[in-house]
Amino acid sequence: MSQTQVTVPDLGGIDEVEVIEISIKVGDTIEAEQEIIVLESDKATMEVPAPMAGKIAEILVSVGDKVSSGTLVVTLESNSEQASESTEESSNEEPEDKVVSPETSKVIDAPTAGANNNEPINVEIKVPDLGGAGDVEVIELSASIGDNIDAEESLLVLESDKATMEVPAPDSGQLVSFAVKVGDKVNEGDVIGVMSIVSAATTSADSASTPTQTAALEDSTPEPNVKEPAQAMKASSESVAEVASTGSVHAGPAVRQLAREMGVDLTQVSGTGPRKRIVKEDVQAFVKNKLKHPVNQGAGLLASVIGSSEDFSRFGPIEHVPLNKIKQVTAKNMVQSWSTIPQVTQFDEADITDLEGYRKGQMATMLPEGVKVSPLAFVLKACVLALQKFPNFNASLNLDGTQLITKQYYNLGIAVETPDGLLVPVIKDADKKSLIDFAKDSAELAGKARDKKLPMDGMMGGTFTISSLGGIGGTAFTPIVSAPQVAILGVSKAATKPAWDGEAFKPRLMMPISLSYDHRVIDGAEAARFARYICQLLGDTRHMLL
Length: 546
Hints:
By secondary structure, the chain is an alpha+beta fold. Helix content is 27%, strand content 25%.
């Protein structure tokens, strides 16, 4: 047995490329050309294959390491015969790196007239080696006719079902014409445009200009890479950001882009491609399955928060402020609920003039010392009575959306603002609580939430939620239903308004309410009756005290 050291191949001048995936482990027996690690730069992903069959003796890098061309990554054990053959093959293949493909050679050396006179010549731009892919779509034109283009500057971008690829300029010059447009399908060797190139820029000053020399000079560029055509087809400008959220999943740039667009967490998707690699069909099947089960979206569908990739520093000074864990979780839950529940909001107003008179007058004399009953306590009591009268609001859809699960218990969540973000503690067995109990429990839970003393089970099991902004202001808002609940009540600040009593306008204290509900479960008429019933209860406290 002999040991072979596997190094990072030529990266086309790119340094400090990150190791994003290690596909093997020590002791594995692998085949020649089998993937051993995956690298990713800011523009492309690249698989590093094994040069021969053998056994993995040592892995010299870890996920997250930065490597460059020639960096040792793996030690491979193989028999001496294999190693000798591999060395011989490598020596035979080496010159190929210095010669461009036939297509590229034709493009450069075809027009030779006037080369010694430094006159511009027109050369055709052809689609390079696509690694066997066909009918690849043009998704972007990166240059315009008349532009002066530098060598290796991107002319257009292609996308197959597995990867994106930039087609670079073969040399410096002026773009004369484009033979394609966005949406066109192209194949290897297709003419995509014409450039005007000054021959002196492509001719060696120290030797006679021959087709072979010209072709060799052109091969100083990394694309197209004849030895590794499939690697070039993995380019994606957004792949690095995706690695952070999807971990070590096996997926190409185009698949990752599709996942981002559809809000799919790739760590939740099972791959059906080679070595369980995720393909587009896997993402689409995952989405279809989740759409059949719109409730319980914990698997990650539409649960990610997609922000902006724009460089705002172009316009002025900026500051990056990281979101704490609570805000991140809240954001994901809100995106999930908003994206999966068809929500409608019903607005109404409750006349709480008499309620406030009772709360500030008679009730104040009956309260135990230290207990303060706010309007929220009355709202909580009214919600319990309304839920008992309208059981569909105290329910959830089953997994396949064919049944409504009505709950025989009443647990009310109350949204609490804390320095770290929004928390929703739950008052359990709300149907057994008095107004004084609601006053005590809501104050205690809110205090624990702000002091970071609220246990995890203190936020679980809610059947209905109340979000009160009455202490801040506003006339109405549209609270988001928190799945798997089917409704949420928003309360805004009460204001004195003129009300007609049949004879004259009189000042009345009106409290706006906003009822958001899942329209799959609750109809508009039912929601209107529910909201009106709450307003009636708040308008006459006798109904709540009976």
